[in-house]
Specification:
Organism: Bradyrhizobium jicamae
Radius of gyration: 23 Å
Distance between the termini: 52 Å
Order of helices and strands: EHEEHEHHHHHHHH
Number of helices: 10
Oligomer: single chain
Protein name: HEPN AbiU2-like domain-containing protein
Low-confidence stretches: 196-209
Pfam families: HEPN_AbiU2
Shape: elongated
Keywords: Coiled coil
């Protein structure tokens, strides 16, 4: 399975042949494949099979061709390192959720009594910290790809857009993103009013925000896991599981030690 990196350039005019030759030279010099194709409008797609070569080509376009007219160039792609980093980040945030789930949602009466007898305020505060973190983490990975000032966010939408040329994969990623966005809508008010910010009126009212059932949370993590695995398989030709093996065991060990 070959991952490709496409750069679209507009209004090349008489510069086209020079740009094509440069792209071909960069590809040949670095042992990667390259091809180009015109679009129905005034755009040309230059496609590479190596991320680093694509980056070099973008640098050439910015310095020698488009200059300050950055609107003439479009590219959305992610490097293997970025895929790896995002996958590992998803392992981390799901692990925190799993700790919280086992300690505070799935604990039995004896386990809760042990936590209360050893350090009641500590575990109450820890439950609140976990809840706020999980809400923030779920909202953060579902944030918009581009910020208000044009900056890029390291989020789900970035990876969905990066594979728009792989139609079957893009369709699956879009469906999973839509499902995760639906979950975000359930918890977004809590993120805005209580975790990312401290809204005075909301705090004084004492009313709960961001209600989502455990089954809805489980669906979110399943969607995220499927999303990461699909992207990982596209880039590395192997699946990926965001469910860390030792997390559940660590939580169990804590509860056992508290009851010893």
């Amino acid at each position: 399975m070959v991952t490709t990196y496409a750069i679209s350039v507009r209004s090349l005019g008489s510069d086209f042949e020079g740009v094509r030759v440069k792209a071909s030279y960069l590809a040949a010099s670095n042992g990667c494949q390259f091809w180009w194709k015109p679009q129905p409008t005034d755009w040309h797609d230059f496609i590479f099979t190596n991320h680093n070569v694509a980056i070099l080509f973008v640098g050439f376009l910015l310095s020698d061709i488009v200059g300050s007219s950055v609107e003439r160039i479009k590219f959305v792609f992610v490097s293997p390192d970025e895929v790896r980093l995002f996958a590992n980040h998803c392992v981390y945030i799901r692990s925190i959720y799993e700790y919280a789930r086992r300690l505070f949602s799935q604990s039995n009466e004896a386990e809760r009594a042990a936590m209360k007898s050893v350090a009641p305020y500590f575990f109450e505060d820890l439950a609140q910290v976990f809840a706020e973190f999980v809400i923030l983490a779920a909202c953060r990975v579902t944030d918009p790809w581009t910020g208000r000032r044009g900056s890029e966010n390291f989020v789900i939408e970035l990876f969905t857009n990066a594979f728009v040329r792989v139609a079957p994969l893009h369709r699956k990623l879009t469906q999973l993103q839509s499902s995760m966005d639906e979950h975000r809508s359930r918890i977004e008010k809590a993120r805005h009013k209580l975790t990312a910010h401290a809204d005075r009126e909301t705090i004084m009212s004492g009313e709960p925000l961001g209600a989502a059932t455990w089954s809805q949370w489980e669906q979110f993590w399943k969607d995220l896991g499927d999303f990461v695995s699909l992207v990982h398989e596209q880039v590395f030709d192997s699946s990926f599981d965001i469910r860390a093996a030792m997390v559940r065991g660590d939580a169990e060990m804590v509860l056992k030690k508290l009851q010893a």
